[in-house]
Amino acid sequence: MKQNKPLKIQVEAVMVVLSLHFIGLKEAEGRKMNCFSCCMSDNRIARRSFKKSIRDYKLVKSIGSFANISFKSASSKRRYITKIGQGNLSTRIFTFRELCSATKNFKRECLLGEGGFGRVYKGYIDNPSQAVAVKQLDRNGFQGNREFLVEVLMLSLLHHPNLVNLVGYCADGDQRILVYEYMANGSLEDHLLGLSQNRKPLDWITRMRIAEGAARGLEHLHETANPPVIYRDFKASNILLDEDFNPKLSDFGLAKVGPTGDNTHVSTRVMGTYGYCAPEYALTGRLTTMSDVYSFGVVFLEIITGRRVIDYSRPRNEQNLVTWAQPLLKDRRNFKLMADPSLEGNYPTKGLYQAIAVAAMCLQEEASTRPLITDVVIALAHLAGNDIEDEGAEEDDVASDTIDGNSDDRGIETEDTPEAR
Description:
By secondary structure, the chain is α+β, with helices and mostly antiparallel strands. It folds into three domains: 2-84, no CATH class; 92-181, Phosphorylase Kinase, domain 1, CATH 3.30.200.20; 188-383, Transferase(Phosphotransferase), domain 1, CATH 1.10.510.10. The protein is built from twelve helices and twelve strands. The strands form four sheets. It has a six-stranded mixed sheet with strand order 1-5-6-4-3-2, sandwiched between helices. It has a two-stranded antiparallel ribbon with strand order 7-10. A hairpin with a 6-residue loop joins strand 5 and strand 6 (177-181). Helix 7 packs antiparallel against helix 9 and helix 11 (349-362) runs antiparallel to helix 12. It is globular, with a radius of gyration of 23 Å.
């Protein structure tokens, strides 16, 4: 029975996606849609079409295969969805009325943040024993139906301590609302880049532990998910922090199923956030897990330096973080100049040098020379420990004078492995 449970969860998630897609079809046809349960209203089912649909449905065995279910027409898909209904879902389906009650009718006092996607509110569910974050998507915002569907699917299938937990969703009428576990300390961006007067700067060890946890989240997507999942929007604002500053990746609307079989990449429209995208992806649309590794390198550089990836308030030659850092990365004598001034020198010199070496390897121009995220996790686990002595960095203990991307070995070395490159 244990072997069947993952498949059961995957199948249930497929049911969610197809049902929500049906809502989009209904809206496209201009029909009024009062609530999610309207999917259950049509009892006219063609036996032959339904049998074929069920046969296709049973072939679903992985994250990627949900997209391969095909139907001859929209009506056969509608009949199929009508038959299977909502199922026993691992995520909860909320009514709009329930979420209005949870957020005091989406009052301003409950607002946690807002952006191009819509607004996020703090709310309480179940009388009110559980705090949640309620993300109400803007009907004309950047995150549309497709991103909504992808996020519900991904977070229904993928579970890990460093991935945010999706409590449920609402698709009443034209409402698109996602309900997450509440993360008490907001985002990494709040503590790193938008520091208010009442917040203390993150100390060095906390920064390294956040980086390690975020890397473990990516590792789960790349190495455990089958097929692998490419996050595609790794940035500081998408790394949420709980009350103990444990990081969790959020916002999976742009996530993409990675290459399978003999394929080395997937070709897709370039999406993401300017400054974080890997150069080969931005230029060609070819997406691999190495694209995420590059984005991780950018965020890790933000963690080390306390600088924004793009900051137009700085001098022209310092506005782009990676462009500013590249010449400094070539000589380890510059590394101390890159440390966040708010740290006030409170970091192990050896740890700083090794952290910058990790960031430099992730930011290699050639994707094939970047390390696997598993190697990054190993290096960061070392950096997040308390065993790095602050004795100054000896040449044998840190990165070489130049960071060279010509090696075929994509591993990252720490004291437990051969010398760092």
